[in-house]
Amino acid sequence: MNTGEHDPSRVIGPGDTVLVTGAAGTIGRTTVRVLREAGLRVVAADRRPDEEGSGAERTLVGDFRDPGFVAAALGGPDGPVDAVVHLAAIPAPGVVPEDQTLIQNVHGAYLVLDEAGRAGVRTAVAASSMSAYGYAWAGRDLSPPYVPVDEGQATVAIDSYALSKVMSEQVGAFVTRRWGLPCTLLRFPFVGEGPRLDAHLERVRHDPGSNRRELWAWLHTLDAAGSILAVLRSGLTGHRELNVAAPDSSSDIPTAQLFAQYHPTTELRPGIEEFGSSLDSSRATTLLGFTPHHGWRGTPEHSPAGT
Predict the structure, then answer these.
(1) Rounded Cα gap, residues 261 and 306, in angstroms
(2) How many CA atoms lie within 13 A of 101 on its CB side?
(3) CA-CA distance, 183 to 250, in Å (whole number)?
(4) Straight-line distance from the first to the last Cα atom of the chain, in angstroms, rounded to the nearest whole number
(5) Distance CA 228, CA 218 (A)
(6) What is the DSSP letter of 306?
(7) What is the pTM of this model?
(8) β pairing state of 123-129 and 75-76
(9) What is the four-CA torsion angle of 172, 286, 151, 220, rounded to 10 degrees?
């Protein structure tokens, strides 16, 4: 790690209290479990009850567009929480009208992160998305200038979901400038495990082109939660966005072949392995000491031949 970008006073460890918003969601539920197993005390909050039960020390149900609820959630059992993990958001286009996707995602991010800074929370991490680059939900085919896509690549967002992620990242930068709150935005691709992942891989196997706008990137839910824990443990200072993606693609077709067919104008830079990811996660590895390691090849239920 680059110790110049880390502050030991910002490290979150056993016994510290973490607020997890969106705790009943795909990533949230696993994150609560992983944080608890790491010895952290968790306040789990969502706008709907978690029917499976998170096992969190405290569970809250409410709307993160309500300033009163946000303030209450940031108050842990023994005073203000030590850290915030903001996962609550409209998870994809089409769930609500386009304007509401933008309004709800950005409004929620602003209230949670700004109030966290005001309350003196020590660090914050939030889920962004590879959609911030602009390809996934554009409504038409757009190709990256090069792969693997790194955090220096500019957004070409033309849909409201992508814009909501870009603007939420800007909220994180604003909060760091305003309050000095370290804020790390993690750019996740499709996240899943178990039946959700199985269904996704099957769709891609039958029709690789259906996933061309997501660039065949994906992430195991355990690695999403692991990267969140790594941020909390890292003591990172400042504001930044970091890609976090599985080391392999979601397709059984070599990555170079996929891009030659579906994104022929994209430059394939050296270093991509045969089935390697189109997202560059090396910055997260450098800063967090964390590398996603869950792939899908070679597991009993999957094989490169799709049998």
Answers:
(1) 20
(2) 17
(3) 29
(4) 41
(5) 16
(6) -
(7) 0.94
(8) unpaired
(9) -90
Whole-number Å distance between alpha carbons of 258 and 261:
5
Using CB atoms within 10 A of its CB, is residue 266 exposed (0-12), middle (13-18) or buried (19+)? middle
The half-sphere exposure of 105 on its side-chain side, counting CA atoms within 13 A, is 30
Spatial separation of the C-alpha atoms in residues 179 and 182, rounded to whole Å: 9
CB 207 within 8 A of CB 263: no
| pLDDT tens per residue across all 307 residues of the chain | 334 699 999 999 999 999 999 999 999 999 999 999 999 999 999 998 876 666 788 999 999 999 999 999 998 667 789 999 999 999 999 999 999 999 999 999 999 999 999 999 999 999 999 999 999 999 999 999 999 999 999 999 999 999 999 999 999 999 999 999 999 999 999 999 999 999 999 999 999 999 999 999 999 999 999 999 999 999 999 999 999 999 999 999 999 999 999 999 999 999 899 999 999 999 999 999 999 999 998 654 454 333 2
Give the angle 23-221-85 at the CA atoms, nearest 5°: 40
Return d(Cα 140, Cα 3) in angstroms, integer.
42
Token pair of 291 as six digits: 């590398």
In one-letter notation, the amino acid at residue 189 is: P
Task: Please provide the size of the chain in residues.
Answer: 307
From 270, 276, 281, select the one nearest 254 (Cα to Cα). Answer: 276
DSSP reduced 3-state for 58: strand
Tokens found for residue 283: 């910055």
